[in-house]
């Protein structure tokens, strides 16, 4: 690439770099408004482009005006007066597009040849393609880029057989297009596909990011990209989490041994009890009376049996003996009921349910629940796993438990059993997974709640999250289909 000779002049593009188009000069204000109205009245970008070149061609008649716009980072010839792009020679179209590319790349208005009209001279522009087009077409050539808000999106090439274009004529063209250029840009953006808009926005964002004053933003984006790459490539442990609760490995429900009334409650929920420790006493007054009545009847039957034997009355003796046996059985039953009137702990346990301290004197029937006990030395962890994740859980998988009362102290667990039945909890279907604490502790008691995480494999976190979201979407889709 080389610079043009000194007789080529450069005119700054008013519409390419400023944030808004420069207003037209007063003498051309009405012409600019008419030009804008004609372009805006078109119902498509192609129609607006042809109307655009036709109006410019009429203004600088006789001339040929061509309009090119950038599409997918390449300049495409949109419209040209007196030129059928489909039937034109390939060399002519190539030179024309090359001249448009030069103006777009430099964002400068150029002309060739250039008369000595006293226009200010700047740095010499690159006009290799412009000069090649002038040699091919002859006459005079001028190219004006089209831009808005710092973005150059096209260019206009004007060719004529008359004298060279003056700086005043180029300013007239720029003033005339001051309102029409934004209209073309709006139509171009409105007819762009979603992919083209995304590509354009990403390109503009990349250009802004490359500015010297965006060093902090570049570092943040780089850090985010590295973090995303780590999440997408690092094979970390994949976890399935759910609500968890502590239960005793063995639980025992203690019920009322007979109809009666509560006399004394020795324990309350949360108490630790030893084996054979008294828990609840029932009122035994009625049973004591029943026991005395049974003892009296037994004595009567024994006396009757002795008298019958003394008289050698075998019939009466046999009857009395049967009544003695019945009275003995009845007395044994009452004695057993008296012994069971005190409910004791069957093993070392925690009381987890049943506060009877506020129910003294309350009547109970045989079989009514009084207390619920759980073992002290052995606990199990019940984890509620969502139906979307349950397929990944297997017995033997490790995990960790964080209790709400001890959130800073995680405890290791291992899966032992999966309950094959789902239950609804808070509007979700969950499965209960039974796990075991690897190191049971005295301060971990049944009834505590928390959250457990089970390790179900290794996978990059990004793909694990995406897979979980996809599974949930699949379940929702099937639920919606019914």
Instruction: State the CATH architecture of the largest domain.
Output: 2-Layer Sandwich
Q: What is the helix fraction of residues, given as a range?
A: 25-40%
What's the total number of strands?
20
N-to-C terminal Cα separation, in Å?
Answer: 68 Å
Low-confidence parts, pLDDT < 50 over ≥5 residues?
Answer: 1-26
CATH superfamily (homologous) name of the largest domain: GAF domain
CATH C-level class of the largest domain is: Alpha Beta
Quote the beta fraction: 25-35%
Instruction: Write down the domain tally.
Output: 4
Could you describe the 3D structure shown?
By secondary structure, this protein is of the alpha+beta class. The chain has four domains: 9-206, Beta-Lactamase, CATH 3.30.450.40; 250-279 and 347-376, OB fold (Dihydrolipoamide Acetyltransferase, E2P) (Beta Barrel), CATH 2.40.50.100; 285-340, Methane Monooxygenase Hydroxylase, Chain G, domain 1 (Up-down Bundle); 377-475, Beta Barrel (Elongation Factor Tu (Ef-tu), domain 3). The protein is 38% helix and 30% strand. It is built from eleven helices and 20 strands. It has a six-stranded antiparallel beta sheet, sandwiched between helices. The chain has a six-stranded antiparallel β-barrel with strand order 7-16-19-18-17-20. Helix 2 (45-59) packs antiparallel against helix 6 (180-191). The chain is rod-shaped and about 165 Å long.
């Amino acid at each position: 690439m080389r610079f043009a000779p000194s007789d080529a002049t450069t005119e700054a593009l008013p519409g390419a770099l400023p944030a808004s188009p420069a207003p037209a000069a007063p003498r051309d204000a009405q012409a600019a408004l008419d030009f804008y109205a004609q372009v805006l009245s078109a119902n498509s970008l192609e129609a607006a482009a042809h109307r655009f070149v036709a109006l410019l061609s009429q203004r600088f008649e006789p001339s040929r005006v061509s309009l090119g716009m950038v599409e997918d980072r390449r300049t495409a010839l949109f419209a040209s007066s007196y030129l059928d792009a489909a039937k034109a020679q390939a060399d002519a179209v190539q030179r024309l597009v090359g001249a448009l590319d030069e103006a777009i790349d430099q964002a400068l208005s150029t002309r060739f040849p250039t008369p000595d009209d006293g226009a200010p001279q700047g740095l010499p522009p690159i006009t290799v393609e412009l000069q090649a087009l002038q040699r091919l077409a002859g006459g005079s050539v001028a190219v004006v880029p089209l831009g808005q808000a710092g973005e150059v999106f096209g260019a206009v090439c004007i060719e004529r057989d008359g004298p060279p274009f003056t700086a005043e004529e180029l300013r007239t063209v720029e003033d005339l297009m001051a309102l029409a250029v934004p209209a073309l840009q709006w139509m171009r953006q409105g007819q762009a596909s979603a992919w083209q808009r995304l590509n354009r926005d990403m390109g503009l964002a990349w250009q802004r990011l490359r500015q010297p004053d965006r060093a902090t933003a570049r570092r943040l984006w780089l850090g985010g990209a590295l973090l995303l790459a780590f999440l997408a490539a690092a094979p970390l442990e994949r976890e399935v989490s759910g609500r968890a609760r502590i239960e005793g490995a063995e639980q025992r429900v203690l019920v009322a041994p007979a109809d009666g009334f509560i006399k004394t409650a020795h324990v309350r929920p949360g108490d630790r009890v030893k084996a054979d420790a008294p828990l609840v006493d029932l009122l035994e007054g009625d049973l004591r009376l029943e026991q005395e009545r049974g003892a009296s009847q037994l004595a009567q039957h024994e006396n009757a049996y002795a008298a019958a034997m003394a008289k050698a009355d075998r019939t009466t003796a046999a009857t009395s003996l049967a009544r003695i046996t019945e009275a003995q059985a009845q007395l044994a039953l009452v004695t057993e009921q008296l012994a069971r009137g005190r409910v004791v702990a069957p093993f070392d346990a925690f009381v987890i349910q049943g506060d009877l301290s506020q129910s003294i004197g309350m009547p109970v029937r045989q079989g009514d629940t009084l207390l619920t006990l759980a073992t002290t030395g052995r606990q199990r962890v019940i984890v509620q796993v969502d139906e979307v994740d349950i397929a990944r859980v297997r017995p033997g998988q490790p995990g960790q438990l964080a209790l709400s009362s001890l959130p800073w102290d995680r405890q290791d667990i291992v899966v032992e059993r999966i309950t094959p039945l789902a239950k609804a909890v808070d509007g979700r279907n969950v499965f209960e997974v039974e796990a075991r604490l690897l190191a049971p502790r005295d301060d971990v008691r049944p009834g505590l709640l928390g959250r457990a995480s089970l390790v179900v494999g290794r996978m990059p976190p990004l793909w694990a999250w995406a897979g979980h979201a996809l599974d949930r979407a699949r379940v929702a889709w099937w639920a919606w289909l019914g």
